Amino acid sequence: ELNEKYGFHARNDSELAFFLLEKKGISAIEEFDGVYAFCYWKQNKVYLARDLFGVKPIWYSLDDNLAFCSEKKALINQKIQNIDELNPSVILEYDTVSKKTNVVNRKFFEITPEFELTHKELILKTKDLILNSIKKRIPDKNFGILFSGGIDSTVIAYVCKQLGLKFTCYTAAVESAESEAPDLVCAKKVAKELGFELKYK
């Protein structure tokens, strides 16, 4: 959608994010829809940001210079001290010349006004939102779904099946000698009942 809106010819989401940041600056983040974490460096300004729900991580330190990574242990292995996790509701702005840091607060999602809809209408709206959320994240090729048999992965797999898409469910579990892992038991049961192709290890 953003490729079309701005006339970009990005080949993937990372390239699209870069093009948009180059065009609009850090304010472009308000148009991002999905989970992400990134560093954007323009002239002497470095920006660190992540999605508002905090799905993708960023860990950073400002001890001597700015250091950051997606996993805390990578910074620990470099003997870096005073490591913090970036709050998803802020954008960290670091000046490579002055070594000064600025924090830009982001607005979280609105939960008001409440929908004035009937129970049936709310169900249909929720269904549409889930359907559209899944549809726009489906790749063009065959794909896999990490499948636990829980509510989230089952809904995603069920919607994909209803859309007639080709996919495989994958489950990984640690088994004991005495019994099968509970997650695997659940995944097998749900996959069999709903007709999903399941591979597990």
Note down, in words, how this protein is organized.
- The protein has 201 residues and is of the alpha+beta class.
- Helices cover 32% and strands 22% of the residues.
- The chain has six helices and ten strands.
- The protein has a four-stranded antiparallel sheet, with helices on one face.
- A hairpin with a 2-residue loop joins strand 1 and strand 2.
- The longest helix has 17 residues.
- It starts with a helix and ends with a strand.
Strand content: 15-25%
List SSEs in N-to-C order: HHEEEEHEEEHEHEHE
Oligomer: single chain
Structural class by secondary-structure content: alpha+beta
Tally of individual helices? 6
**Strand ordering within the main sheet:** 1-2-6-7
- Shape annotation: globular
| First-last Cα distance | 37 Å
Rounded mean pLDDT is: 92
Instruction: Please give the radius of gyration in angstroms.
Output: 21 Å
Considering DSSP H and I runs of 4 or more, what fraction of the residues is helical?
25-40%
Count all strands and give the number.
Answer: 10
Enumerate the spans where pLDDT stays under 50 for 5 or more consecutive residues: none
How would you characterize the largest beta sheet?
Answer: 4 strands, antiparallel
List keywords for this structure.
alpha+beta, single chain, 201 residues, four-stranded antiparallel beta sheet, 6 helices, three-stranded antiparallel beta sheet
Question: Layout of helices and strands, plus pairs?
Answer:
Blueprint: H1 2-6, H2 13-24, E1 37-42, E2 45-50, E3 59-61, E4 67-69, H3 72-77, E5 83-85, E6 90-95, E7 101-105, H4 119-135, E8 143-146, H5 151-162, E9 167-171, H6 182-194, E10 198-200
